[in-house]
Amino acid sequence: MKVKVAILGVCGVLGQRFVQMLNGHPRFEVSSISDLYLGKTYLEATGNKWGKGSGGFDENVPDYISDMEICSATDIDRDIPLVFSGLPPNVAGPIESELAKRGHIVVSKAKDHRLEEDVPLIVPEVNPEHLDLIERQRKKRSWDGAIVCAPNCTTSIFSLPLKPVIDNFGVENVIVTTMQAISGGGYPGVPSLDITDNVVPYIGGEEEKTRVESKKILGSIDKPAEYRLASYCCRVHTIDGHLECVFVKTNKEADAEKVKRLMKDFPGTGLYTGPVRPIIVRDEIDRPQTRLDRLAGEGKNPYIGGMSVTVGRIRNDEVFGLSFLSLGHNTVRGGAGEAILIGELLDREDYV
Amino acid sequence: MKVKVAILGVCGVLGQRFVQMLNGHPRFEVSSISDLYLGKTYLEATGNKWGKGSGGFDENVPDYISDMEICSATDIDRDIPLVFSGLPPNVAGPIESELAKRGHIVVSKAKDHRLEEDVPLIVPEVNPEHLDLIERQRKKRSWDGAIVCAPNCTTSIFSLPLKPVIDNFGVENVIVTTMQAISGGGYPGVPSLDITDNVVPYIGGEEEKTRVESKKILGSIDKPAEYRLASYCCRVHTIDGHLECVFVKTNKEADAEKVKRLMKDFPGTGLYTGPVRPIIVRDEIDRPQTRLDRLAGEGKNPYIGGMSVTVGRIRNDEVFGLSFLSLGHNTVRGGAGEAILIGELLDREDYV
Amino acid sequence: MKVKVAILGVCGVLGQRFVQMLNGHPRFEVSSISDLYLGKTYLEATGNKWGKGSGGFDENVPDYISDMEICSATDIDRDIPLVFSGLPPNVAGPIESELAKRGHIVVSKAKDHRLEEDVPLIVPEVNPEHLDLIERQRKKRSWDGAIVCAPNCTTSIFSLPLKPVIDNFGVENVIVTTMQAISGGGYPGVPSLDITDNVVPYIGGEEEKTRVESKKILGSIDKPAEYRLASYCCRVHTIDGHLECVFVKTNKEADAEKVKRLMKDFPGTGLYTGPVRPIIVRDEIDRPQTRLDRLAGEGKNPYIGGMSVTVGRIRNDEVFGLSFLSLGHNTVRGGAGEAILIGELLDREDYV
Amino acid sequence: MKVKVAILGVCGVLGQRFVQMLNGHPRFEVSSISDLYLGKTYLEATGNKWGKGSGGFDENVPDYISDMEICSATDIDRDIPLVFSGLPPNVAGPIESELAKRGHIVVSKAKDHRLEEDVPLIVPEVNPEHLDLIERQRKKRSWDGAIVCAPNCTTSIFSLPLKPVIDNFGVENVIVTTMQAISGGGYPGVPSLDITDNVVPYIGGEEEKTRVESKKILGSIDKPAEYRLASYCCRVHTIDGHLECVFVKTNKEADAEKVKRLMKDFPGTGLYTGPVRPIIVRDEIDRPQTRLDRLAGEGKNPYIGGMSVTVGRIRNDEVFGLSFLSLGHNTVRGGAGEAILIGELLDREDYV
Question: Which residues of chain C make contact with A239, given a CB cutoff of 8 A?
Fold first, then answer.
């Protein structure tokens, strides 16, 4: 029997991606959807906006959800154990808390709870053991449910390849420059006049997130990782896919060839939405490229790519010793896909 | 009386920019032009390609050069003291040597001679004293003329703001990530299918140039600067303007506010094509932006912008201590404009 | 002595273009500016939005207006004879009426009054005689001032080359397909996700305007022109410049070569902002092109291009007999520039 | 048992699309591939160019063809009945003739043979009966094989929706303006500097093709259709998908609602690659849009969209009476997909 799930903020870019990726899901069944357009069907509510906020959508709303009625987040049935939240920041916080209090497990893409000490911030291939925080959270907050967070897209995309590096060589310093897609700004989001023939070298709050969130993910359950990190996060004119240039000072010398092997061998989760190879390493000098590689990553779901991170140009340089490029799909791996993967992990670990 | 000048490779993107920027020049008069299309007029030879390889050109070839006949590089009159070379790499080398031998001073944008020990590699605001190498070059090579090189565009754009930093604090490490415009690839250059909705994180030879050329420019006439440098050079979808994210480890602590002041006060050359403020510092959190700032920079020439570098987001970070963004126009400051500025410097210093 | 002018909606895309094009104007002096940000200086009010809504702006607000204080539209001094309105549709209507009633001559780019029978809708090179409607308007409305309208950008760009055709051959049918720039949608305007790698084949109200406005402009002062017109107006991914494909069935046979000559010879106004050749005809098979030709057009103002319309591919086809392409700059010729040109015409004709 | 097929020009954009669309095909088995890179495997030959010339490709060459060796076109085994040709124009002509003479049935996307009287030019949903020309061709040329052509992409995309119009109302005049994608220019194809922030209103030979090819397709096997047609074919900045604005003068009055119904009901072929609904009609005022609708069209092949044409904005206008927009995927419906569909039709009709 399938696990019933709800989607919050189901009409937005993230919500639409949840709708697409949960279509035909073997374990999860969308039973309740919430957004501002109360009482409308999903088709009526999303209609004209469907598929506009990111790439790779079919031209029509999937049949399975077309006539489902939008309800309020707080009207979600108590018998739905798992809730995916695509709510916007600041709005998400109190609603997610309320639902967790009522007994739901909320997997959230919003930033609001990410940095709370007893909230797991999870990249399933990197720190699944942080789910143990759920017990701590429930005890502390006297909740039946729980909140589990997926990280900011940018952070997720470089934390994944950083994991085998930190595990094998230790990391002292990280410098990251990102070239992020417009779909990261939501819809309508970035004005076309702002990004056509342009780069906008600032995305509000993003650089702080790369610094603080990555340390939480790559640290132990009790303590953030201790490297120092500086980044510039830039918006470039791509639809989907964040490309990140990463320079890493390791504690032990990290031979580029060895790093390459470790990344190639980095294991997947075996979960439905998780790719067989979470890190794809390309050897071509000019890869990864945003448009060519953002949909890489095969798992058990034959319809969806974009769950792998593609790494390339791994090399030993004269400053930090190690540098590489990491590319991921911001609304799949760095978005709804990561949340669904966390949901699948929670399911396997019997939390739902 | 004006100084006669010649332009080599006059039909290409660089050549066209020379043609545009020397239109109405108060000191230089274009007297000879060379390219492959021997015997044709400039209009016939360039015709359909005029203005296509970069932004900001008038829709028509300027009148002054329209009917001038294209000759071979080696047919340039001996009485033309100054030659601007927009020749492609590898082609440039032997032709420029031949012309220098014949007595011309060749200011080249090609890479071929840049790293030769007795060839000055000049950013006029940064290392004008390197022109002293001309004497050494003439002596060593028994030439009447000389070769003087302008650096690679990317290098020029971060070397300028790095100058006050190295002078005041010393520099140990530099990490640079660049987001470069398509006009850097020449015309026809980058295929549209390669860059639309894409980032190409590799530009052949570019990263090596940032490393080696910047050390030569920022070093003394006898010895390169001794910092270490690593970079990723990426092509993004902008027409003109390279945006560069620069992280710098200084020897002495460099307070961001102090750096800002030093950059703002960095003096211009006073030359016709040189801007009053070679480094423009912007305080907005989201500047410089490629499309908005690439044409910044007023000098005595009222028609041409793009000779200043715009710096922004100067800050103290937790890794290297200092980071900033630098933006410049690759075919003006990093292209023909820099060569013309070198020509004006040579004129003022009585080399021509 | 200069004529004092005011600008309404001075912070928007149109308003900014007025500010730029009136900088250093030999006859007009901006004395009053209005927008929503009462009491702020122009720099404070526009600041971060300056230059973002169209191309070709300097990176900074011009000095002359930087410290001017924003006032309310209804607080404009009575001694300012001429008011340029860049107000948004629906907002513009009552304010412009109020100002005309008070004695100002308002030149408006808004649609609100365009189709009123006693309001002149002017392309200065096409139907300057329609200014006679001012007397009729004043009499009918008992106003001291008047309202004069500039047409919709798209309409202006094909009406200009249609004028010599209708005058010489008569016009029965017109079919137009447009490829319009994103700056036509204002700022922030068109979302980047809507236009990247996309065409949006609909712009609200635009097709109706091409039909009704062009007939008013090309008709007599008493009666619209009688041709039939159908159009599709599409948004494509260009920053500035509307390219229009025009198919025309003439009453008398219109030889392509003859049409070409008539367009080339079509006279300018001799006014400061008006180009010497309002219609530039190009012979290349692949012109006009949006980026290459949108800034064409030299007048007495050396700093501003974009006031000419560029026509190309004039030919005799097997359906209607005549077809051609017309390209114009939507925020210059089809925007503030046309309004300023109307202002200059009013000045020459002693209306102000 | 599967039918063996060969692909000519297998490394180009068209060839790659054949490779992708024939992957796992239930009736066709790729047994031979040809291109210039003799003796190399497909992976070696295509390698770095794979997936760059159009959208929607996986990041890697499919396994089934990766190690297949490239041979010369004239070395194709005689027992391969069906050959798909993605050869470039002018090259294609003699090679295709030679292969047809040897007994192969060649389905070609090249223009070389399209207009020959005895060569069927086929859109399978529109004029399958033109395949009868094969007998005539064989008799006349004494060939065992045959040449069958697929039309130019642009033509295909408006001929499909024009079919129910001509059948039900008759057609007198057609005016078409197209906005075509860069992938239509092949790879490397259109320079990025030519199309960024630009429209290029000319594509060599394209307008003539829309005129002559559409009349052949929509005519009888013996005589072209007799309407008159004029078009402007423009390149806009989209990756895939041609959007076409079509104005039609019908013989009998064509009510827009009735046209809509006829198009919606237009039947598919029932073939594997053919969509259930070859013409999708959308009711939204702003559709079809290139990025949102180019991949529309479900058939029996669950992996490939892009075989339907999407029509929208069907209306009765004041000039011709009928106008609509038609959008199709130029490298799928207008490319390899159409050729494969022709191949499937030939298979069903027992030609292979």
Answer: 193, 196-197
Residue count of chain A, please give it. 352
> Cβ–Cβ of C198/D239 closer than 8 Å?
no
The minimal CB distance from D59 to the residues A197, A286, A296 is found for A296
Nearest residue of B to residue D236 by CA position? Answer: B192
Show which subunits contact C, needing at least 3 CB pairs below 8 angstroms. Answer: A, B, D
Neighbours of B351 (CB within 10 A): 16
Contact D201 C230 (CB under 8 A): no
DSSP lists the bridge partners of residue C233 as C178
- B192 close to C (CB below 8 A): no
DSSP state for residue B128 in the 8-state scheme: G
| Contact assessment for residue C205 and residue C114, using Cβ atoms and an 8 Å cutoff | no
How large is the average pLDDT for residues C231-252? Answer: 98
Residue C290, min C-alpha distance to chain D (Å): 5
The closest of C71, C66, C63 to C24, measured between CA atoms, is C63
Report the alpha-carbon distance of residue C343 to residue B264 in Å, rounded.
Answer: 41
**Cα distances (Å, whole numbers) of residue B140 to B114, B134, B146:** 16, 10, 11
Q: CA–CA separation, D306 vs D333, rounded Å?
A: 6
Q: Is the pLDDT of residue D60 over 90?
A: yes
Number of alpha helices (DSSP H) and beta strands (DSSP E) in chain B: 11, 12
How far, in Å, are A107, C86, C87, C194, C214 from residue C112 at the CA level?
A: 50, 12, 10, 27, 16
ipTM of the complex as predicted = 0.96
Cβ-contact D49, D187 below 8 angstroms: yes
Is the CB of C291 inside 8 Å of chain D's CB atoms? yes
Q: Which helix (H) or strand (E) holds D178?
A: strand D171-180
How far is Cα C113 from Cα D215, in angstroms, rounded to an integer? 47
Let me know if B233 is a catalytic residue: no
Query: Which ranges of B228-274 would DSSP assign to H, the alpha helix?
Result: 256-264
In this prediction, residue C112 has a pLDDT band, given cuts at 50, 70 and 90, of very high
Is residue B153 among the annotated active site residues?
yes
> Is A53 an interface residue toward D (CB < 8 Å)?
no
Closest chain D CA to residue C227: D319
**Residue C305 C-alpha from the chain's centroid:** 14
Instruction: List, in sequence order, every beta strand (DSSP E) within chain A.
Output: 3-8, 28-34, 70-71, 82-85, 105-108, 146-149, 171-180, 228-235, 242-250, 279-281, 309-315, 321-328
Q: Please list every residue in chain D whose beta carbon sits closer than 8 Å to the beta carbon of residue C285.
A: 202
The pLDDT value given to residue C35? 96
* A179 reaches B (C-beta below 8 A): yes
C chain contacts of residue A189, beta-carbon cutoff 8 Å: 191-193
Strand partners, B243: B179, B327
pLDDT in tens, A118-135: 999 999 999 999 999 999
Q: Taking the alpha carbons of C37, C43, C47, C50 in that order, is the dihedral positive or negative? A: positive
Nearest Cα to A240, choosing from A301, A321, A170, A153?
A: A153
CA–CA dist B134, D145 (Å, integer) = 73
Asked if A108 is an interface residue toward chain B (Cβ–Cβ < 8 A), one would say no
The predicted model scores a pTM of: 0.97
Please, which pLDDT band fits residue B21 given cuts at 50, 70 and 90?
A: very high
Nearest chain A Cα distance for residue D296, angstroms: 6
Contact between B96 and B133 (Cβ < 8 Å)? no
Least Cα distance to B151 among B252, B64, B60, B224 occurs for B224
Instruction: Annotate A100-110 with b (16+ C-beta within 10 A) or e (fewer).
Output: beeebbbbbbb
**Of all helices (H) and strands (E), which one includes residue C70?**
strand C70-71
Confirm or reject contact between C183 and chain A (CB < 8 A). Answer: yes
User: Closest residue of D to C180, CA-based?
Assistant: D199
Q: What is the pLDDT of residues A45-64, one digit of tens each?
A: 998 899 999 999 999 999 99
